[in-house]
Amino acid sequence: MSAAVRLHMENNRITTLHDDAFRDLTSVDLLTIQGNLLSEIPPAIFNGLLQLNELFVHFNLLRNLNGTLFQVMPMLQVLHLFGNELQTLPSDIFTSNTQLRMLTLSSNRLSMLEIGIFDTLRDLEILEIYRNHLERIQSGLFTSLRRLEVLLLSYNRISYLPEGTFNVTRKLRILHMCCNKINNLPADIFTPLHSLQMLTLANNAIIQIPSLFSCISLVQLELDNNLLTESGFDNFGNLNIMRMLTLQNNNIRQLPRDAFREFVHLNILYLNSNNISRINIGVFRDLNRLSVLNISDNAISHIGYGTFIGLENLTVLELQNNQLTTFACNIIVDHVISLRFLNLSHNFIEKVNPNHRIR
């Protein structure tokens, strides 16, 4: 089998691999042993796999890995270890894998990552660590990851990010940190991320919006299910190519008049399930490309003529579960000319009037 190029052994019932199982497979460039019942892997099992580019070891029962396990594979570019039961990783485990482009460690039981574990992975582009037990990111953990483009940290227990966490990862395009326990972020934590396109911080306990002035490439920002108030809207900065903004399930009570001044290309805006009691006239005036607006499940009792000025391309408007008692049709007809779906259910509307003007 020395001429073999790809070896697939996934989704079997393999419980044990002998030290010399792959000894003669010197030409293999892809090996899949995922979906088996492996609880350990012999330290020398991959000796001889000098041409291996891709290794799939996910969905097994691995709890520990020897620090020398991957050191004999200098050509390795893709390594999948997700869906195991790993609790720790040796700090030198990836020392020889300098060509690694993608590393997936998600869905394990990792509670900490040693400083230096990624130091030799200077070409790494994708790093997935979501669904683990991480409580904090140590300072300098990502110092060598200058080419990193995708970093997934969601569904951990992270409560703290030190200043400078992303100082080196200036090529990041996608950063997911939802479903953690973050409540406070350093003011300039995202300042180096000029290339960032998607940032998810949903389902944390964030009180203040961090500065996003430097995130000029941001297209999607998810801040829902936090503890945000209306203070800090000025920190949104120059987000003039943003397409989607989610702010539902926060503690926002009112919308500053210039809250969305920079969001000239925004398509989708979720403000539902806050404590908004009124909407200032003209607050949406700069959102002439908005197509979906959800402000349901708030405490809005009155909508004045001119509230929806600027929303000529809006097609979906969700206003259900508020406290409206009256509604005037020309509030919609005069300004929301493209509307296709309007939900006013579960309010307290007694009268529907044809016209309404600012009092």
Structure commentary:
- The protein has 359 residues and is mainly beta.
- The chain is built from 1 helix and 17 strands.
- The strands form 2 sheets. A 15-stranded parallel sheet has the order 1-2-3-4-5-6-7-8-9-10-11-12-13-14-16, with no helix packed on it.
- The longest helix has 4 residues.
In short:
With 359 residues, this protein is mostly beta strands. The chain has a domain at 228-359: Leucine-rich repeat, LRR (right-handed beta-alpha superhelix).
Based on the model shown, name its key terms.
15-stranded parallel β-sheet; elongated; Leucine-rich repeat, LRR (right-handed beta-alpha superhelix); single chain; two-stranded parallel ribbon; mainly beta
How much strand?
A: 5-15%
Give the oligomer, counting copies of the same chain as homo and different chains as hetero. single chain
Count helical runs: 1
* E-strand count: 17
SSE layout and pairing:
Layout: E1 6-8, E2 30-32, E3 54-56, E4 78-80, E5 102-104, E6 126-128, E7 150-152, E8 174-176, E9 198-200, E10 220-222, E11 244-246, E12 268-270, E13 292-294, E14 316-318, E15 326-328, H1 330-333, E16 341-343, E17 351-353
Parallel strand pairs: 1-2, 2-3, 3-4, 4-5, 5-6, 6-7, 7-8, 8-9, 9-10, 10-11, 11-12, 12-13, 13-14, 14-16, 15-17
